[in-house]
Structure formats: structure tokens, C-alpha cells
Amino acid sequence: MKISGFTFVRNGFKLGYPVLESLQSLLDICDEVVIAIGNSDDETEERIKNLGNPKIIIISTVWDETLREGGTILAQQTDIALQHCTGDWLLYLQADEVLHEKDYDIIKQYAHRYFHHPTIEGLLFSYYHFFGNYNYIGTGRQWYRSEIRMIKNTNSVFSWRDAQGFRTKDANGIRKLKVASIPVSIYHYGWVRNPIDYLKKQAAFHKLYHDDTWLKEYLPKSEEFPSCYQLDTFTATHPTIMNNKIQSDHQWCEQFNPTIRKKRPLIVLILDIIEKITGYRIGEYKNYTLID
User: Which of 150, 140, 116 is nearest to 265 (CA)?
Assistant: First the structure.
């Protein structure tokens, strides 16, 4: 059984992504890792090439700047990498997502378990969404709790919408993948970055969804930390591969004030309270069909 990793990135270092850490966590578990590197104006491609790892397959791409609706370009870039994978299972990470080394064997065990399963098409991972600095995670309905991050190589699976998840095609048309949930978490660091990088990232991100008029009106104008509705303290361990980055970010991370929160709309507050009591999230968007 062969496992291919795949991902995409553009201006990853300029925008403060943990690019090398994410890539290394794929390299540690995969037989090959395909990365679509968009036309960047930083050292992204050079630094990845300098790793000199024979498992890495680089696909150089040019992003279509006209695809500015719904994050379409993100799905397109994901599909470019996906289509160059040769493995039986395909393990997907975005450039701000990292796997923990304690989970490598677990991932392989479940890949073997479901490899010949006639129904299961993908594996569902849970999430830690780090926010502000490395000590806090965003919680509540503002954050998605699970997503597909491993799929069987059926040649019919494709990235869905803004590349958060996947869909597949069969004789009846496009449908959700049938998946099994596994006890593995994705460590998502997209909301932990220097406020200077955060401002750049917001500009680059929203450019994929909105026109110039929207950007001029709504983009943040100052270099400041973001805020959200609800945070919990993170008490577990980070992937070892993140240790150096966490240490190097220590100075600006200390400036984050976790007590500054967005005002939660009443309906969100009520729904979050219900979820906390019952464990059930009303109206949760599920980009998959859970089988096992």
C-alpha cells in the first residue's frame, strides 16, 4: 500500500505559513509528496527545493488571478497536486496544517484497515484550530470540527469549493464521500501569525473571494491580532516539528491578549450553550457522509 501526500502553496513564507513543518509531517508518513507551488515572490520554491528530499515532487503553477469567487483557485491548485499522485491513499494537508508524530502509526493502521473496505472512500480527521498564539484554540460553531484529509485514489475524487473538503463523481452525479472517522487531529495554525503577516495573509486570502471594491472597504487597515468569539486553553502537546517555530515566534506571541473577544450574536451564544451541554451542533455543515 502506497501513501501519497499532496498540498499546494504560494508565497508561504511571506504570509507566515508553517510551510516546512507541514511538508515535513507529510514526508514523515508518505512515500511521495506532491506540492503545487504557485508563482511566488518569496523564497517558497527555493526553500522547498533546498530540502533535497527525493520524495518531493514539485509542480510549478501560475495562479489565475481572475478566479476570485468562492476560493475557486484553491480547489484548482489542490486538484493539480492530487492528479499527480500515484499512491493508493492520498493524504492532504494545507500549508497551515501539521500532523503530530504520535499519530503517524495510527493513520497507517486505519489506512490498512479500510484499504479493502468496499464502502469507505475517505478518512475523517478532527481539528485543533489554534488562534492568536500557540496556547489557545478557537472553539464553538465558528470553527469546523472535522474534515476529510485522506482519500482513496479512485480518479473520481476532486477538491470541493474552496478546497476545505472533497467530492466524488459516480453514475448518479456529484456526491459527498463516504468516510470513517479516525482518532487523529489536524493541528491548524492558520490563525497564529505575526500581526504583520496576518495583515498580508488577510489581503491575499480575501483577494481569492472578493473584488477590489470589497477589499478596499473591508480589509483590516492596521497590524493587529484577530479576535474571535470563544477560546479554550490548549493543554496537550504540539507536533515536535513545530518546536523551533514556536520558540522563534515567542516574542510576538506574548503580545496576544486572549481576553479581547468579538461580541457573540445572541443566536450564536444560545447555539454554543446548547452544544456545550448536549455535544450536538445544530445545523452543522458536514462535507461528508459518515459511515463508520
Answer: 140
Q: Assess contact for 115 and 154: CB atoms under 8 A.
A: no
Q: What is the pTM of this model?
A: 0.92
Residue 23 to residue 45: CA distance in whole angstroms: 12
- Torsion, Cα 26 205 249 49, to 10 degrees, reads 40
Tens-place pLDDT, residues 214-223: 556 555 555 5
- What lies within 8 Å, CB to CB, of 175 at 6+ separation is 167, 168, 169, 289
Within its chain, how far is the Cα of 251 from the centroid? 25
82 three-state secondary structure: helix
Residues 6+ apart with CB under 8 A from 136: 130, 231, 232, 233, 234, 256, 258
* Phi-psi region at 279: left, alpha or beta (left = phi > 0; alpha = psi -120 to 50): left
> 207 and 238 in contact (C-beta within 8 Å)?
no
Q: Is 123 helix (H, G, I), strand (E, B) or coil?
A: strand
DSSP 210: S
Using CA atoms, how far residue 20 sits from 53, 134, 165, 247, 288, in Å, is 12, 17, 22, 15, 29
Residue 83 has pLDDT above 60, yes or no: yes
The amino acid at 112: H
Element at 191 (helix H, strand E): strand 178-191
CA distances from 268 to 25, 126, 200, 271, 280 (A): 35, 22, 29, 5, 14
Closest C-alpha among 241, 20, 257 to residue 135: 257
